[in-house]
Structure formats: C-alpha cells, structure tokens
Amino acid sequence: MIQRKRLFEILERGMPGDTASVVVDYGIISVIVLNIGAVIISSFNDLPALLKQGLSIFEYISIAIFTLEYGLRVWTAPYKYPGRRFAYLRYIVSFMAMIDLCAILPFYLPFIVGVDLRILRILRLFRLLRILKLNRYNNAVELMAKVFTGEKEKILTTVFMTGLMLLLASSVMYYIENTAQPDKFPNIIATLWWAVATLTTVGYGDVYPITHIGKVLSGVIALLGIGLVALPAGIISSGFIKAISREEQAAKEESLQEKPPEAKRVCPHCGKEIE
Amino acid sequence: MIQRKRLFEILERGMPGDTASVVVDYGIISVIVLNIGAVIISSFNDLPALLKQGLSIFEYISIAIFTLEYGLRVWTAPYKYPGRRFAYLRYIVSFMAMIDLCAILPFYLPFIVGVDLRILRILRLFRLLRILKLNRYNNAVELMAKVFTGEKEKILTTVFMTGLMLLLASSVMYYIENTAQPDKFPNIIATLWWAVATLTTVGYGDVYPITHIGKVLSGVIALLGIGLVALPAGIISSGFIKAISREEQAAKEESLQEKPPEAKRVCPHCGKEIE
Amino acid sequence: MIQRKRLFEILERGMPGDTASVVVDYGIISVIVLNIGAVIISSFNDLPALLKQGLSIFEYISIAIFTLEYGLRVWTAPYKYPGRRFAYLRYIVSFMAMIDLCAILPFYLPFIVGVDLRILRILRLFRLLRILKLNRYNNAVELMAKVFTGEKEKILTTVFMTGLMLLLASSVMYYIENTAQPDKFPNIIATLWWAVATLTTVGYGDVYPITHIGKVLSGVIALLGIGLVALPAGIISSGFIKAISREEQAAKEESLQEKPPEAKRVCPHCGKEIE
Amino acid sequence: MIQRKRLFEILERGMPGDTASVVVDYGIISVIVLNIGAVIISSFNDLPALLKQGLSIFEYISIAIFTLEYGLRVWTAPYKYPGRRFAYLRYIVSFMAMIDLCAILPFYLPFIVGVDLRILRILRLFRLLRILKLNRYNNAVELMAKVFTGEKEKILTTVFMTGLMLLLASSVMYYIENTAQPDKFPNIIATLWWAVATLTTVGYGDVYPITHIGKVLSGVIALLGIGLVALPAGIISSGFIKAISREEQAAKEESLQEKPPEAKRVCPHCGKEIE
C-alpha cells in the first residue's frame, strides 16, 4: 500500500524537492504540448506519408500514456479524498478527471460506436487546460478565480442582460431589414449574427443594415456595446480591488496580533500599575 | 375582500413558502419564454401549415393569460399602494404595467385601428424584461441599478459628449469626403453612420474615407473611440468601488455599535475612576 | 456704467432668479442648436428653393445675433477680469472667445479674402461646445475635467506610446507587405491607416495583410490594441477613485473639525486637570 | 581621467543646469527624430534624385554620430557601474545598449555579410524608444512600469489564457469550417488569423464563418473578447489604485514620523511624569 501512496504523491503536483513527482509532472505536460503540436500539424494538407505515419505512431503512444495516467489517478483516488466514501466515483466525476477522460475517450469510441474521429480529436485539446495547474501561474490564477467567483452574480446578470439585448435587437432588426435584405436577415436567429457582430463591435462587414431605421438601430446597439465593455471592466476592477484590500486587511490584522503587548503603565508615585 | 388581497399576494413576487405565488410566478415566466420562442419560430419562412396553426392558437391562449393577468394586477392595485389615492392610475402608468400593456395591446389594436400586427408584435418581447425581477438575480441587479443611478450625471455627460463628437465628426467628414464619395457621404445625417461605426470601432467596412485628410480624421476618431470606452469603464469601476466601500463602511459602523463599552479606568491608589 | 455691468451679468451664466440672464442664456443656446440644425439640413442635396432661401435668411439673422453677442461680451470684458489690465485682450484670447470668434469669422472672411465658405462653416459647430457650460451638467464635467487634468501626464504618455507603436508597426508592416500589395501599403504614412484600423480594432476591411508574417504582425498589433484600451481605462478608473476618496477625505476632515472639543480630563482626587 | 568622467556625465541624462549635457541630450534626440523622418520619407516611391542623395548623406552622418555616441558610452561604462567588475560587458549587454547597437549595426553588416539593408534599417526605429527616457514623461512612465511589473503575474496569465483560447477556438473552427471554406480555413495555424480578428473584435471581414455552427462559435469568441478587454482593464485599474494607495500610505507614515513628540503627561498632584 506504500507504493500506491507514493504513486499518488508522484502524480499530484510535485512538491519542490520531490524529483520523481516533478519529472512526471513535466513529462505529462510535454506529452500534452506535443499532442497540441500534432493536432495542429495534422490539420495541414498534403503532409508527406512519413510524417503522417509518425503522427499516427505518436498518437498511439500518447493515448497509451494518457490511459495509463488516467488509470493510475483513479486507482490512487482514495488518497485524494482520505476518509471519505465513494472516492473513486468522486474522482471520476471531478472536473479535471472529466477533461482527462475526454482526452482519451475519442480514441476508444470508434471501437464501440461509429463516430467521426476527427471531430472528437478536438477534445484532446481540453488537456491544455491542465497547464493552468502549473506552479508558477498558480497565485494569479487563484486570485482571478476568486474574483470571478466573488463577482459571479454580477457577471451572470451581465451575461443575461447581454443575451436579452441581443435577442431584442435581433427581433426588432429582423422586422426592419427583412424586406430590404431577405437573404441577410432571413429570420430572428440568423439576425443574431448581425447583433453579436455589432454589439461586440467586431463588425465583419458581411451583414449590416441598409435601411435608414436599421442603421439607427445598428448605431444604438454599437454604442450600447461600449457600455457592455465598460460593465464587466468595472465589475472585474472592483472585484480585484476588493480582493486586494481584503488581503491587506488580513495582513494588517495578522501584524496587529503579532505585536508585543504594550508596556504596562505604572503610577510613579505609588509604584502600582494603572489599569 | 380577503380574496382580492390574497390574489395580490399571489401575483406579487412569491415569498419563499407561498406555493401558489411561486407557481403563478414561474407559470407566467414560462408563458413569456414560450412567447419569445413563438416570435422567433414565426420569423422563419416556409413553416409547415400545422405549426403555423399551432402558433396561432398559442398566440390566442397567451394573450388571454396576459390580459387576465393585467386585469387582475390592475384590480389588486390598491394593495400595491396602500393608503394612497389614485392607486389604479398609479399602477397603470407605472413602468412595469406599461410594458405589460404593450405586450397585449398589439393584439387588440387591429380591431380598433388598422396597424401592422407584425411590427407591434415586437413589443411583446418587452415582457422579457420582467424576468429581471426574478429573485436570484435581484441583489446584483439592484447594486448595478444603484451604481448607474449614482453615476447618472457622469454617464449622461459621457452620452452627451459622445453625441457631440459624432455630430462634429460627421459634419467635418461630410465636407471632406462628400466630393470624393457622394454616394457614401451624401449628407451629414448619413455620415453619422460612418461616425458611429468608427467611434464604436465596429468598422463594418461599407463606408470609410478614401481621401488622405478623411483617413486622418477617421484615425483620430477611432483613437478617441478608445477613450470613449475607457471613460464609462472608469465611471462604472469607481461607481462599483464606491458602492462596495459604502457597504463595508456601513457594516463596520454597525459592528462598532455592537462593541461592549470599554472597561472604565480606575486609579489604583484611591480606588476612584479616572475620567 | 451701471448698464454695462448689468449687461455683463445678463451675458454671463444666469443665476437662478435672474430672469433676463436665464432668458438670454437659453435664447443663445436655442440659436446655436438651430444653427446646427441648419448646417445639417443644408448638407442635403436637392433642397427646395424656398428652404434654401429660408436657411440663407436664418444664416444672416444668426450671424447678426452672434456678432452682437461677441461684441457685447468684449465690451463687458472689464467686469470679467476686474482690477486686472488688458481685460479686452485677455477676453479675446480666451478659449471660449476664440470659439465664438470662429463661429462668426467665416461669414466675414469672404468679404476680405477669397475662401471657401463651406469649409469654414464647419467652425460654427464649435459653438456647440458652449452647451457644456450649461448648469445641469456642470458638476460631472468639472469632476471629469479634474480627473483628466490630474492624470494628464499618464494620458499623454499613453498617447505618446500609442503614436510610437503606430509608427513602429507601420514601418515594419511597410517592409513586409509593400511587395505583396504595393497599392495598399505604398509607403509608411499610408500604412498608418492600417495600423490605426488594427490597433483601435476598427478593422474596416479595406486594408489588411495577406502575407503570413504580415498577418502575425497584424494579430500582435490587434492584441496590443486590447492593452491599449485597458491602459486608459485603468488610468481613468484610478483617477475617478482618487478624486472620490479625496472628496470623502475632505468631507471627513470637515466633520472632524466641527466636532465639539473633547471634555477635559480632571483628576478626581485633586480636582485639577490632567494634561 | 577627469575628461572621461565629465564625458560620462554629459552622455547621461542631463541634470538641470548642466548645459553641455542637456545640449547633447537634445542633440541626439533630434538626430533620432530626423532619422525617423528619413525612414518615412525614403519609403515613398519616385523621390527626386536630389532628395535621395540628401537622404543618403544624412544616413552617413547620423551613422557616424550614433557610432561615436555608442563608442563613447562603452568607453565611459566604468562610471556607470562604479566599483563593479566587467563594466564594459555589463553595459554592452544592457537593454538600452542593445537597442543602440541595433541602430548602427545594419549599416556595417553589408560590409561583412550580404544582408538586405532595407529590412535591417527598421531596427533604427528602436532608437525611438529612448525618447521615453526624457525627463518630462519620467514619473508617469515609472509609475506605469511599476504597475506592469507588480501585475506581471496576472498579465502573463491573461496572455497565456488568451493564447490558449485562440488555439482552442482555431482548432474547433478549423474542423467546423474547413469543408465549407477550404481556402479561408485551410489549417489550424491559418485559422488563428480568424481567431485573433474575432477575439480582438477587429473583424476585417476577409475571413468569417458561413456555417451555422461556425457563426455560433464566432459569436461566442467575440463575446469572450469583451471579457478579454475587461480582464486587463481590471488588472491595470487595480494596479494603479494599489500603487496610488501605497504612495499615500508612505506619505502618511512619513508625516507621522515628522510629528513632534506628544507633550509628556505630568501627574498634577506630584509634578512627576506619568509614563
């Protein structure tokens, strides 16, 4: 059982000094990065046959590594959730484990059901997200995650109001432009493409109103788009400032408690303490 | 009269525990969401006859529901404004009631005057705004509304200055580009389309200057557009931070008042209090 | 001389209660707004002859009003700068007076030198800026002006660095794309048009790189453009917060000074004051 | 040796009052600015032969000046790093010295190896960065640099996550749009061009999805682009506020230490000090 515990320590984020753990950590990250490279390269046309073969072999090797890693992580799950029940299940349904599973499942699926391997291969890129767990970015990512969690309600409201605005704008624009440009604004859902391009100020230029009233609406939506950028900027700004001031508050309180107690006051004429 | 009061309670935002109220709340929200779906679906061409009929029937049902709801809300208005005069009128001219009226009026208007039903149907989407009253988003919406109200003057000034900038830029650009592209910059109002697209950085690409001086002006306006994004972002940021610091201040003052009074100081040599 | 002083009071921003001053204030604002309307209308083609004549008459009337106003303002200048020398000159070279002069000069210039009336007419729009002096927006405008003045150094640095970035990007892009698209990137100055459109994320779509390395540079500049928006947003945010916290600080200090002095401490056993 | 020390003082940023130093400072800045002008002018086609010759002569002169300046700076390096070893090497590998070298090296390289002078001439523009060292912008640049350094971790994380998002979006979009538009989305790397244009909301309009699912993805990426602008804006805002509050804290602590010591408390009944 000692070995299983040791294996768990190796697979988990390496403590500085634990060479085996660090090596495994960087080894898996390397395989992930190489896999991303392989996905990118295999998207090019007219690859030489040798390179195609090499990519195919690398595919098998990395799936083997990822499958082994996933299996070992499941096997050592009880050490991840010590003293709690259903440790295996807990691990399998955890977010990171789901991503890991998504990275290997596409390979095995064609053996079971008939699916397009190419589409499913995209899921392997999800593995890239694990790089965020790397040590050196941890503090910033943690703070950012804390800020996003703290401002979740406001951000959700912003997202909801954005969706509402897009839907309203599309509905109105559809009725305005449909007769003038039936091919560009065929229905409300298709008009959403214009609404998003305008509100986010992307403005590809493939769809835009040509009627006068349509241009007025488009201008209003574009100007509201500026407010839409300002709102999350304000939310995240205040979130960061709140987080920072809380940290400083905590640091101050800590330093207060560490202070030596004040020297007791002694009344000089009777030698006894005052208070 | 008990029933009328109970009806009012049911129609108002449901207290947790008041099952009837919660059911009615979610029921009406469902009808609103379904109506949005219906508006979207009916914007598609070549719908099968059966679906068209279904949408038409759903239209009649939802108008019946909305009319009933509106009538009941007006009838129970005296409980909304207890002890105040003109309760019915007060309710009818309130913002939410106007939106509710806009949602049902388009249906009845064609019976009275000849209007295009399609255009007026858009107004039904205003009902969607009522979803904002939902419990779970309330705190964030309230805070945001407070921030916007607190910064109203600054935001209005920004809007005013933006309008001014658009007008000035359009006037100048019209004189610059009119002779080079008379079809794209025919007059100052039409040139506003370019000004908005540039200042908001949408840049559809249908209208842009081709003269050298026009390009310089366009570049300046685009760069000012960056400041235009920065200004509301700064206003809203500081608004949020002000709101948060006020909340914290209020919380601190509250906790201060709860503090036990400090122990009184007693002079140890005579046993009497100092101060 | 009393009349001249009274005239000065009337022309200056009206105190609430000074009916004559308020009437003149709003009267001039109305003429300004009507002039803007006239400029916009006269930019349309194919106006009916009667309307053209009407606009021409309105032109003469408003020039007369503006000239009279300008003359009276100069005449009453000594009351604007009481007890200081060169009051007339002081007023004439002041920013607001220059704008007022720009609004009437274009009309008189053709009588002296041969200039294009149309181009110079644009200057009349500068009068619109005076609306900012209106009472109701004053506080917000003042605060914003204070923030911009306080952050002037940072904003200038941002503007300077933006110019630098545009110049560098254009120079590099010219060497990259010139051979591929000599008509779109003919020289470094013309390439600035692409640089501004990319950095501000306007992206009209009339000029964009087609070479691989040009696309890489364009992508980098577009991403830097995001930082460019973030920088002034941050500067203005912190400026507003600084201004607000200063105001609160000032209010706090004021309230502290209003506090009654603390009751003096008296030693209870001898009846004399301690400290 | 006195002369060498004096030379060092002259080359370094001039103290106010040191005329020679200020003259040299502004002289070199003038040469830099003129060089930029020369690079811009020489990018135009069909320049008259005389101007071309003039630019060529100016080229030789400025290279001579820059070479002399670089040589003298290296020679006086021991005064820049007093009492430390390898002063010459230290200076040569410093960032500013590398830029200076880049500005003159392109001229000498063709004598040694065969390179395209035109491309290397761009490097001369790097010299422009030295203008940032100018006195008057120093405080703001320093504060900004401090803020960027303080928020480095967060900014790097944002950059990293942006890269991740671009890569993921490109990979997914490639599989979606490749069959519909094989010329616009030929492989994942080429699809990055679309991803950057969408995420930064530039939207040139040369590449955009035409499939339904591609448009959905494009809309999502554009909306995420808004969050991408908000994130650095929030980071930089909070960075500035942190920097400002630290400065104020430092100023407060300083003023506290400058306070005169409080008058000592004397017990009034025995004339001795308490405490």
Q: What this model shows, in words?
A:
With 275 residues, chain A is mainly α. Chain A folds into two domains: 4-138, Four Helix Bundle (Hemerythrin (Met), subunit A) (Up-down Bundle), CATH 1.20.120; 152-258, Helix Hairpins. Chain A is built from eleven helices and no strands. In chain A, helix 3 packs across helix 6 (95-112). The radius of gyration of chain A is 29 Å and the shape is flat. The mean pLDDT of chain A is 81. The interface between A and C is small, with 9 and 9 residues.
Quick overview of this protein structure:
4 copies of one chain form a homotetramer. The first copy, chain A, has 275 residues and is mostly helical. Helix content of chain A is 69%, strand content 0%.
**CATH fold category name of the largest domain in chain A:** Four Helix Bundle (Hemerythrin (Met), subunit A)
Give the beta-strand count of chain A.
Answer: 0
Calculate the terminal CA-CA distance of chain A, rounded to whole Å.
61 Å
Query: How many whole angstroms does the radius of gyration of chain A measure?
Result: 29 Å
Could you say what the CATH architecture of the largest domain in chain A is?
Up-down Bundle
Mean pLDDT of chain A: 81
Helices and strands of chain A, in order, run as HHHHHHHHHHH
Low-confidence stretches of chain A: none
Structural class of chain A: mainly alpha
Largest sheet of chain A: none
Helix proportion of chain A: 55-70%
The domain tally of chain A reads 2
Largest protein interface, residues of each chain: A-B, 51 and 50 residues
Quaternary organisation of the protein chains: homotetramer
CATH class descriptor name of the largest domain in chain A: Mainly Alpha
Per DSSP, the total helix count of chain A is 11
Question: Overall 3D geometry of chain A?
Answer: flat
Strand portion of chain A: under 5%
